[in-house]
Amino acid sequence: SGIIINFLDYVGPFNKVLSLLGMERQVFMGSQKLFIPILYFTDVWKEAGWSSIVYLAATTSINPEFYEATEIDGANRLQRIWYITLPCIRSTILILLTLKAGTVLNAGFDQIFNLANPIVQKTSVIIDTYIYRITFQTAGDFSYSTAVSMLKSVINFSLIILLDGISRRIEGVGILARDTKVKGEGV
What we know:
Blueprint lengths: L1 H6 L5 H8 L11 H29 L3 H9 L4 H12 L1 H12 L7 H7 L11 H11 L4 H29 L17
């Protein structure tokens, strides 16, 4: 957040480049119209590294002979991705999707809390900032904020269970253990 705030500051490097190009300086962090795109950009920037590592590791485990065979058959790069890469890493995609579904309502409280300011307050309200404001900035209604937070957790948990069930039906793997009993063992 500090990097983005300093970079997009009115006297920051991005505005200096704009002024060198003869364009008018912008107040990026004070624009309700630009706050959401900045938020999306910073979230993708923040999350892309870990996801790239996981997907790259899954992709490197694919047998190279699959690619060689499709190349001999005349498949182009897009066809190799569609028919070899994606089916081979489907279980990884489903498991990461299931894990990410549990955080769908979190929306990056720390990021929004640090990037927001009074000018973009209406644009930057999410469930977590609402809970924070109810708990610490207004009457201190702990029971109401706990109930809202609990409802959010129940919804996130339900999404994990739903996507885990879909993952088990599609790929046969999931994140939740079903049967830990080993065949041949007594109960």
